[in-house]
Amino acid sequence: MKRTGPSLESFRTWAACRVLLSLGLCCAAVVAVGQEAPVPEPTEVPPEAPAKADDTVVLPSEYKPPRNPDPMLLIVKELVPKFDGSGPSAKVIPNGSVDGLTWYKKNRAAFQRAMNAGDMVGQNRVLVQNGLKVLVLRLSLQANRPVLTDVRKEIERWMDRAASLSAPNARRPFRQFVMDNVIENCELLLDNQLEVRMSAVILLNNAYVEVPNANRREREKEFYAPTYTTFTKILEDQNQHVVVRIWAAKGLRRVLSEAEVRNQQRDQIARTLMGQLLPGKNDPWLDMRIAEAAGYVGIVKFAGGKPVVADGLAKVLNDAGRDPLVRSESAKQLARIVPDESYNLTLFAHQTVRLVKEMAAAQAKQPKSAKWRVCFLNVYLAFVPEDKEAANAESGLLVRAKGNLKHGEYVPKAFQEVLPFVSHALGKNWQAPFPAQQIGGLDAWLKTNPPKDWRPTPACEPLEVQRVAEKGPAGEPAG
User: Taking the model in full, what pTM does it have?
Assistant: First the structure.
């Protein structure tokens, strides 16, 4: 292709610009040499400059100094054991001559064979115990802090492969033996550095013991029920970090939903959960997880005859001082607990509508908070099943009220009242405030449609606080 140069017209334009620039520079030089440029008179007295000796820096009003690190992050407590020798069955002693990591490196192959074979006879039993102790306690090493997740996942792989080559009838006892050792060593880490504690409790959330099934090739699993004692201790420890306690609540939910747990143990777990939930002194995210776990208790009959879970969740739902996250989760779980004909579905629906009214009013103060979407979704799931598992459990007030002569008419009407609010909260314009007229309409519905019975079940006391708050036009209790 032939290359062409600039046109004559562009050359002329460039030349003209050059001439004008030269003239401008000449005029500026004349002014600078021949006369002084005029100085505008100041309109106000400039502020005095601060003294040079004063080095004070004034920070912006919105500046927030960095917080001091959590003291639990500063703990250094390395617990890797020491042994009296390097053999497979060496004993753990405080002043042993062989470091645990050195022992493990030498015996790793033998440990792997024993773990895969599910062998806990003779010295192999000690070998497995020692190996698991080193694996779990090395979570406490400072050098492992940047890779704690990798260290934990390696332990989980050992747990998953335990007894993978053994006979089906020998697999379960060996895996129980492994889980018992993991639990014992994890408990030693619960006063360690925060990330170490978290790794330990997350590890316990993966404690599955297999169920042999001779008719199918794949192995079925169930969660290991004895973990509930450790989770309970963690949850009840008010000095434990809230994040660790949240994982303990999640672990209890796994115990209740995926483990073989006797009714007596379920009763104990339920009372622990309610004992932590009802006072309202915990972080809302923790209480939300406790309420979630309570929905999986799975029994109706409790020692003493009182329906502990239904009564407790109903009280939390009705407590206007509690965080909406906790109240909405309680509403959702009230519709998930094991169904019983004694439950006052009308009361549950009415108080869920009340919660929606109060959340709609509060949303205007924090319109950008994403928690409202979670709360209103929980309200929706209080009426309809969340998934296939929930559907099989007949979760949802609508499902349970269907065909019910006592509650079958009220619950669907309550659902129609909350549905527009849910649609708004989960829609594109979820940050927009709810119309005052819409909130007022919901308030009017609540006053004209009070439940006749304010007891969650006939065995419970009535919700007296709500009866006082629920006033009719004449000032009389609406119930």
Answer: 0.81
